[in-house]
Amino acid sequence: MYIAIAIIIFGFLVTVHELGHFIAAKSLGVRVNEFAVGMGPVILKKQGKVTKYTLRLLPLGGFCAMEGEDQASDDPGSFIDKPVWRKLIILLAGSLMNFIAGFVIIAILFSGMKVFTTTTIAGFEPNFGNTEDKYLKEGDRFYSINGERIYLSDDISTFLSRGNGSTADIVVIRDGVKVRLDNFPIPLREYEMDGRKVMRYGFSIKSEKATFASKLQYSWYNTVSFVRLVRLGISDLINGKAGVKDLSGPVGIVGIINEVGTSTEDKSIAISNIFYIFAFIAINLAIMNMLPLPALDGGRIFFMFITLIIEKISRRKVDPKYEGYIHFAGFVLLIGLMVFVMFNDIVKLVK
Question: In terms of CATH, what superfamily is 115-209?
């Protein structure tokens, strides 16, 4: 059941992305030859006045085929001949729809919340110490840790754990004023709770009653936090903290979702957890698709501006087929990466 849910939602996220391109293209006078849900052989099709709408066999994927997307065309509705600002809106629309979808999923999940955990310190363990004015105090609200803004209670442990393990540069809001605590000693330590020894940072966090305004606020904070997690993931790949083998594709994510679902006894909680994961995936798709890489929308935007600069300098029209070649090469490399990640995911599942 959970595998089926995962596949359906994957298809939904891709369809939402392509729907963003479709709506923007139609609104800005670009001819859309085909709007497809799914990939592979056509199951159902309907010819509209201009656009052919198709439902295809494989639920993972979809596309919005615009006239003159990668080559010159004499059609007045050609994408390539539209002003830069129109093309920019069309290319941004897909990621924007994924971003909105992620936020809406989180907002729906949070609509039933009764309380939220804040970022304000409620108290300390008896042997925590360091509660004088130059240290942390009850009522302090975490503002940043090691230069990263703190929006959610989870952000506190996330950025303390990403530090050096012993100290952190902390900024708190105390009585409405920012207080800096540079090189503050705050390692994970062993504390006793309910007769058990646990590793903690030695402080507890306040909770607050959920209101309509706070539900929207925390939904937005979660969305912003997801954006940052994607940025940190990319940063870790670049600086070597993570490798290509740490990446997961659809197969790995479906495996994780199935494990989350089957390991949770309460089915409603399992479904909520799965949709929370997909909210993150929606935000992930929105950000990753804006990277300036060939075959991605971000790459198309990047080359659009490069082409504009070349044409301004040379006063000659650049043949769009050259950009098409670059995107095709990028697409081939992207498919190769996807195959590698899928193989790696299958190996992980087997192990």
Answer: PDZ domain (2.30.42.10)
